[in-house]
Known about the structure:
This protein is mainly alpha-helical. The protein has one domain: Glycosyltransferase (Alpha/alpha barrel). Helix content is 52%, strand content 9%. Helix 3 runs antiparallel to helix 4. The N terminus is likely disordered.
Amino acid sequence: MKKRHRxxxxxxxxxxxxxxxxxxxxxxxxxxxxxDTKPPxxxxxxxxxxxxxxxxxxxxxxxxxxxxxxxxxxxxxxxGQSYSMMRAVWMDDKTTFDQAxxxxxxxxxxxxxxxxxxxxxxxxxxxxxxLTDRGGYNTASDADVDISVALLFASKRWxxxxxxxxxxxxxxxxxxxxxxxxxxxxxxxxxxxxxxxxKQVIILNPSYFAPYAYxxxxxxxxxxxxxxxxxxxxxxxxxxxxxxxxxxSSAHLPPDWVGIDRTTGExxxxxxxxxxxxxxxxxxLRTAWRFALDWQWNGDPRAKDVLKEMSFLAEEWRKKGYxxxxxxxxxxxLLRTESPAMYGGSLGYFMxxxxxxxxxxxxxxxxxxxxPNMSKWREPLSYYDDNWAWFGxxxxxxxxxxxxxxx
Length: 407
């Protein structure tokens, strides 16, 4: 009996040991599998989607989806609505696109000419509407152009002809109300009042110029000379950088604002007193992005010629390791602070003219702003910084498709 009991004990011991060894082997295999499994590769598209989702939470009003500039008393600008619509169509977010466009039509689309009034918010009496006391019923031509492009993209992406019809009405009105003629040639003015006001100098904003858009407009509105608008846009952008304007010399940076003489066609600083300066700052930072997008989509050498003038940015980066958020037209640094929007806009220059530097600029600025573990910006960005950092990231990764040109 003792011998049999001893044998049984030995058998059970061996069995238990075998199970234990098997468990250890399986555990080791599982851990090896975990260790050998590589994390999914970084996806720019996922990054852009995550940032878009966070932006909607931070800056789109629940229920209405109007864009809120929280740094300016929650006003809504036509620019802000255009950015929401552009981002939504690129991100294939039809629900947000439809709500943003519906709010725009209901609240800030002008009834007479269908252009978009530029600013909406809380009035002194506590009601909400277009802020007419701040010139809010006037237009900003960049927003009208961007919304038109977004609508054309939406018509193609989601196969809905109503978007196309809305775009055509808006595009024709841009021509009638915002394109001015100087010495027989068409120029995109900064707003709708430049065409009708009896003044010698017409205000232009080079960062509003979007040659890629006008090439699309020519296809859908062939009765107007949109390619002529593209041509004058290249010319004004380049000439405004080369000219000293109101300074002794020029650093060849695009100005926030510039004027064109109705009679001579000469580019001049906007007559003072006004807050419209020739600085490379809040407005002008978008110029490089727009011409780089034109280069990406169309390879137009005129776009590259414009960007080539902006070599000051490369010199500044090599010398200082940063780009300030504001410069005088002669290159004097006005604000030492750095701005995500400045990097998002200026990155277009580096991508076309200095691709190696572009990788350095991107990795040390915009990429570092993003937290891949939390799938959002490491620190909250302002409305404007959020938009232009996003546009810069999307441009850098080639995620801004010309949807209208796709089959």
